[in-house]
Amino acid sequence: MQITKKQLTPTSVKLTIVADGALLEETKTAVLNRLRKEVKIQGFRSGKVPLAMVEKSVDQNLLQSEFIDAVLNAVYADALEQEKLRPVSQPKVSVSKFVPFTTVEADIEVEVVGDLKLPDYKKFRLARPAVKVEAKEVDDVIANLRTRAAAKEDVDRAAKDGDQITIDFAGTDAKTGDAIDGADGKDYPLIIGSKSFIPGFEPELIGLKAGDEKTFTITFPKDYGVATLQSKKVTFVVTVHKVQELVEPKLDDTFASTVGPFKTLAELKADIKKQLSAERENEARRAYESELLEKLAAKTVVAIPTSIVEEEIDRHEADERQNLTYRGQTWEEHLKEEGITEAEHREKQRPAAELRVKAGLLLSEIADAEKIDVSEDEIELQVQLLRGKYTDPGMQAELDKPAVRRDLVSRLLSEKTIAKLSEYATAK
Predict the structure, then answer these.
(1) How many of the other CB atoms lie within 10 Å of CB of 182?
(2) What is the phi/psi pair of residue 177, to 5°?
(3) Cα–Cα distance, 345 to 366 (Å, whole number)
(4) Is 109 helix (H, G, I), strand (E, B) or coil?
């Protein structure tokens, strides 16, 4: 096979291919064998008609069409491997010359990932941060457990720090008086001092009694999660229904035994520290791997086709839309909240999308370079673990689909490659 490659752009190529005689002969035989099953000639059993007679009996247009398709599929696959190309779209194919069964020449244009230049990942170093659980963190968990286990006693006095107060509240724009979505509640139990509300809200409740009503204005933080409320002044009207004193249980071995299978308070604290350490380790590992990939991807040089970046943005936005649905918010409301158009939202996502695409290409290239693979045993183990986790018949059937196994292979390959990169990055 002769291949001539012409680089049209950094992310598209034109391949001019001339198929060799051996491939043409082999392909013709394979096509005739496939068509032989449909040919019926008196005196011959089904599928046993000589190929020469099959060739004379079948529709010549059908034979030539299937022959050309088979040849093009074969030469295209070989050309991708030989030229080490990564296609990201369906190729545009045009046959420039065809002499039945003896000559096939074709031009194939395809969008590809450009040449990729990896950073020297074996010498790249990134320190892994140490994980430490402070005594105060354990004490905070203990305090939370005591608060949750506390007895609540109604009191006829002004609310103070540490009390639980049940309220109705409604927030309006301090300038316009318009109601603000999500800034209202009925019979809401709130522990003063828990810091679970907007900063400045809970202190306003100190001194209130059951039956009291209070109006006050607070300014939302400039980094508040909802963009339209950042630094906004909101006026709240609060009505108090109940004030309760929290009587926390004594901090001793008896309390520990009510929380779980612990004989002593020391055992409870040790278990909390162990769980917090495991959580911190997992969080730190994920953050470290994300930072490592991001830094290596930023050092990777590659021309990325616009189409795969657009697809990555589409996937990210689809996930975002689904999360908004769970929260009861429409896409239009979200864009309005962010104060941007749909086009601006896409452009805002583009740098991160390009980095994610780069990271994926980086992992694939390094997996090849390091000869990292995934065994059938590893795949089967993951499938069995998922079968144990998802017992629904529909999910069980999904696990048998090839696409699911391909996804598992991709995930396991990425995990093993990231582990190898982490090994290099933390080497002494």
Answers:
(1) 11
(2) 80, 5
(3) 32
(4) strand
Residue 399: DSSP 8-state: T
Reading the block at residue 348, the tokens are 């805002």
Which one of 3.40.1130.10, 3.10.270.10, 3.40.50.300, 3.30.70.1050 gives the CATH number of domain 2-111?
3.30.70.1050
Helix (H, G, I), strand (E, B) or coil at 230: coil
- pLDDT tens, residue by residue, 399-408: 888 888 889 9
Q: Which residues pair with 189 in a beta bridge?
A: 166
> b/e for 27-41, b at 16 or more Cβ within 10 A?
bbeebbeebbeebee
Query: What is the separation, in whole angstroms, between the first and last Cα of the chain?
Result: 49
CA distance 251 to 266: 11
The answer to whether 181 and 158 are in contact (CB under 8 A) is no
Is residue 325 a contact partner of residue 269, using CB atoms and an 8 Å limit?
Answer: no
Chain centroid to CA 290: 12
What are the tens digits of pLDDT across the range 159-204?
Answer: 999 999 999 999 999 999 999 887 899 999 999 999 889 999 999 9
| Joined tokens for residue 326 | 């769970």
423: closest CA among 118, 131, 129, 124? 124
Please name the amino acid found at residue 354. E
Topology match between the domains 2-111 and 151-247: no
The domain 151-247: what is its CATH number?
A: 3.10.50.40
Tokens found for residue 288: 């470290």
Annotate 308-333 with b (16+ C-beta within 10 A) or e (fewer). Answer: bbeebbeeebeeeeeeeeeeeeeeee
Beta strands in 210-366 (DSSP E): 213-219, 233-247
Which pTM was predicted? Answer: 0.72
DSSP string, 364-413: HHHHHHTT----HHHHHHHHHHHHHH---HHHHHHTTSHHHHHHHHHHHH
3-state helix, strand, coil in the chain (%, to 5): 50, 20, 30
The full set of domain ranges for the chain reads: 2-111, 151-247, 371-428
Q: Which of 291, 256, 233, 30 is nearest to 138 (CA)?
A: 256
Q: How far apart are CA 249 and CA 257, in angstroms?
A: 12
* Long-range pairs of 33-42 with CB within 8 A, sequence gap ≥ 24: 34/66, 35/62, 35/63, 35/66
Phi-psi sector, 255: left (phi>0), alpha (psi -120 to 50), beta: alpha
